[in-house]
Amino acid sequence: MILPTKKYAFIFDMDGVLTDNMKLHAASWVELFRDYGLEGLDPERYLVETAGMKGPDVLRYFLDPDISSQEAERLTELKDFLYRVNSRSLIKPLSGLHTFLEHAGMAGIALAVGTGSGAKNTDYVLGLLETKRFFQAIVGSHHVKEGKPAPDIFLRAAELLGVEPADCIVFEDALPGIEAASRAGMSCVALTTTNSRDSFSVCSNVLEIIDDFMQLDPVGLLERLHESRTETL
Ligand SMILES: O=P(O)(O)OC[C@H]1O[C@@H](O)[C@H](O)[C@@H](O)[C@@H]1O
């Protein structure tokens, strides 16, 4: 393995990237909406249009743009509780994840999580996946004012790692997350857990599209980042 001499970072979105769990979030949102007499939240629309956004922003998007912050937080808590109860036995690492993280760490690449989840869900998922030890920074929606598609989560992660945004690669499954990376000046690896391969064709900052981490080489990915810069010169 040829080690990079400059400092680079990989920033991992959590839900839908470290684990294939976004459909479980979608099912919990559908149940929450139904409990409030609102039949018909389309889980596919949630996944395509709002995956990765803060819970209160999902409620503003589908339910009521003027919902109070207090009510939005309360409903998000209810949905997240339901999600945790229903998902505990189903949260598994994506294939090849641990090996990829180990190899990236050994190559000297700084590693962080940048998630739209709040503190409790972040702790829950990273704990079940046994991945906390790999990350030098973990940034969630509770650490920033604006969630995805704003760039704040990824910029904060880069700042904590001390790496320039242009030298960070974000791993994302959600379109609002890929937009957040683009607004942060970062390239992406897109995962096909939540959206189809085709839906990423419009995203100019996507370097690679992958189904899981099995075939991915961390140093090869940095080379791909360099190639993409040369292509755009
Ligand atoms: O940014 P990530 O890790 O994909 O976060 C996904 C988040 O997506 C949001 O839409 C959900 O409401 C959250 O509950 C979920 O955690």
UniProtKB/TrEMBL annotation:
Protein name from the UniProt record: Beta-phosphoglucomutase
Protein family (similarity comment): Belongs to the HAD-like hydrolase superfamily. CbbY/CbbZ/Gph/YieH family.
Organism, scientific name: Chlorobium limicola
Catalytic activity: beta-D-glucose 1-phosphate = beta-D-glucose 6-phosphate
Pfam families per record: HAD_2
NCBIfam families recorded: HAD-SF-IA-v3, PGMB-YQAB-SF
Enzyme category, top tier: isomerase
Keyword field: Carbohydrate metabolism, Isomerase, Magnesium, Metal-binding, Phosphoprotein
Cofactor(s) demanded: Mg(2+)
Gene Ontology molecular functions: beta-phosphoglucomutase activity; metal ion binding
Enzyme Commission number: 5.4.2.6
